[in-house]
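Here is one such protein, fold included:

. . .
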Amino acid sequence: MDEVTILEGVIIGAVGGAIAGLVIWLLELARKALVKMWDTKNVEKWLQLNTIPNHPKEWRSTRTIASHNNLTEDRIRYICSYSSKIQLNSKDGNDSKEMWKFKN
């Protein structure tokens, strides 16, 4: 074989591999964004339907939300902390009992 042909093959392989890696990385980013959006939508909808304004059941615990939405407590904390539609109960000052509600 000619040295130029071998070099062209190596370059084509390297560029093809780089493009494939970039496509896989972009697809994974898109998948994570879609899962985040879907989980957030479900949690917000559940909180809105299961929150009674001005009632003791107005606030829901992280564990309750996680149980009803089939997500981990860490995932619920993450979703509730960045969502602009969900509010953390900070009146009690007790961080061990994380309580959330849907903002009206």
Q: What stands out?
A: The chain has a mean pLDDT of 89. Strands lie at 60-61, 86-88, 99-102.
